[in-house]
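Researcher: Quick sanity check before group meeting.
Model: Go ahead. Protein one:
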Amino acid sequence: MASSLTKDSVRPGTPGTGKTFFGHPRGLATLFMTEMWERFSYYGMRALLPLYLVAPGGLHLNAGTATAIYSVYVSLVYLLAMPGGWFGDRVWGPRKTVAVAGLVIMLGHLTLALPSSGTFYAGLGLVAIGSGLLKANISTMVGHLYDGPDDPRRDGGFTVFYMGINLGAFAAPLIIGTIGENVNWHFGFALAALGMALGLVQFLLGSRHLADRSSVVPKPLSAEEKAGTLRKAAIWAGIAVVAYSVIGFSGHYTLNWILVPLTLLGVIIPVMVLVNIKRDKELDRPEQSKMSAYIWFFVAAAVFWMIYDQGGSTLSIFADSSADNTVLGWEFPVSWYQSVNPVLIMALAPVFAWFWLALNKRGKEPSTIVKFASGLVLVGASFFLFLAPLSIADGGHKAAAMWLVAIYFVQTVGELLLSPVGLSVTTKMAPAKYASQMMGVWFLAVTAGDATTGLLSIAGVDLNRTGIVAMEATLAVVAGVAVWMYRKRVKELMGDVR
């Protein structure tokens, strides 16, 4: 990466020494590499997780329990992005929060590498906490590198930054997945820890190139607020310790005593957050109207992510047991399927950007609502497509690998229609009072979707059954059609947002 740093003139006040990273502030290289290594560790571990949970040499759990654990874990990562952003705003500042987050993630992966089921769940918890702390704050620091929202380089900077995400996500299953599946599961988790360690070291070494404001706590807690927060945290922690001690000593403890409360929180908290914002009397009428419209997008996104994120659990477990994971007679690790999405994102994102621009010039670019509806229909179509390999497996045969690649392809196209639009509409429709919190609210749609998958798995629903897959596919398509049918009403509620 050092070879891409060139001498260039920079706007006064731009962080850095005068050198740039592809024409952007040099601090972007630091954040790019930090995010790349963090995503390398996260997606590598995530690719191994469901396979390790069901493997005879792993925890040897049934597919339902494995899916529930995976879904709870992913929902927690996105749920904790909101308190992670709060820590950056009120306690440590973004820069210190990201440094602490990197350390927590690394310790989490090292804990996962220990050959013990007890420490395994503690490791998952640490990685989820660290990822939540890092997710919101590192994006905030990218924004700090530029001269406000009108800096013409800003959008390009975020594009370069997101390339780091996909590079890490693409490489991780190929490297960590191969080591974990073919050599030793715990070596794979240790390799994820090494990736995060490399990211943390280069972040600490390169942090001098970041903007000064990244070290500032924007709205520090007062002494009274700090005492109140610590008191509430201590009370809730005490309640949890007492409750789980009673359950444990009485001999009634099972894994569901952890999974059920966490999945319920993953559904209840997003609903509570939306209700609280919607009922805020300080919002004026246009803001209230926009929030009513936003709820449509939020629910639609939750349905989308409920199906989409099963690409790492339901589809992965199916591939492990029922797919012919070979290409021209050469067998590849199941975890490699998790590299399909990021490589497709990198290939297709520029095509979509060009396509929307070309349609916009002709006045024919689809509206936000139509893109959203199309994304939902496509994710539903991907699960209708899933019915084919399921039927092949029910007939006693192994399904070809290309069936799964086709499913991931359709889901990726749906993601490119829905996810960037969702991020954009979230910032545009956010009430002024909640401007800094709304990105966390968007992440809660992922939480709600994954928590719903977790609840279904805990309830004993086999997500690899034809009937259930067909029902989920139908739900997504019906939701997409409903959004499209009510597009005029939603557009009215959106006001001046397009």
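Researcher: Fine. The other one?
Model: Protein two, sequence then structure:
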Amino acid sequence: MKTVFVTVGTTCFDELIECITSAEVTQVLRARGYERLVLQVGRGSFLPDTDSCSHISLEAYRFKASIAEDIQQADLIISHAGAGSCLEALSAGKPLLVVVNDKLMDNHQLELAQQLHADSHLLYCTCSSLTETLRTMDLSNLQPFEPGQPKNFANFLDKALGVR
């Protein structure tokens, strides 16, 4: 069953969870062949019911000891732009769409997403452009992120965030 895994890490990003479970987005996912949606909703106040999406099978939870199995089973990962979540998804070699929370002040997530996108490792958008991004995305253009290079990732983060 073709699966989308959505993670917000330990944050509260209700806007993403509400958007991804909307009828419009689930119709687009279904049209692209996805049949299952697994949500890790973190500390958010919105925990959708498993029968709230008519176009796609839905599972939702707040936290697990590890999301590694959900990542491995996913055909597409949609994540907030936290560095840890991005690294975990990219290290697994899965296609990644990052949704930047544009409501955050002093938001470095956008810089990280832009740099990883410029290097062709992921696609990114905001909640307001999620539907169109899902509708038009071409995952075949994504390049693998070389795993097992924590020093390179640290250097990359420094560069993306303007530390060096």
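Researcher: One line on it for the slide.
Model: The first helix runs from residue 14 to 20.
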